[in-house]
Structure formats: C-alpha cells, structure tokens
Design a protein that fits this description.
0% strand; mainly alpha; elongated; single chain
C-alpha cells in the first residue's frame, strides 16, 4: 500500500507542476515545440524510471 501511495504522489506532483506551477513556461518551456505524443512518452518514461528507482532503493524492505 505504501509504494502505491508514493507512486500516486509522484504522478500527482508532476501533473500539478506541469499544469499549475509551470504556467508561464519557465520550467517546462523547453518542451513547448514537442508534439503531444512526445510529451506523453517523456512523462511515461519519467514515471517508469522514477518508480524503478524507488522500488530498487526500497527492495530490501519488501
């Protein structure tokens, strides 16, 4: 249950940062010319890598 909660918090944080905090494109401006497909691939990869790192670091506690 705890790892699922961390996964949800990670996704929620990235979505909030992209849509609410990065509205003036200062943080995410380097992606403004990307297609929607490339943005989805980037964020999916980011979430997958972040999850693998988290699971790898917490493996001994499972």
């Amino acid at each position: 249950m705890n790892s699922f909660l961390i996964f949800i918090i990670l996704i929620f944080t990235v979505v909030i940062d992209y849509y609410l905090l990065g509205t003036d494109r200062k943080r995410w401006g380097w992606m403004k010319n990307w297609s929607t497909r490339n943005k989805v691939i980037f964020f999916s990869g980011f979430i997958a890598v972040s999850s693998l790192i988290y699971l790898g670091l917490s493996y001994k506690y499972f």
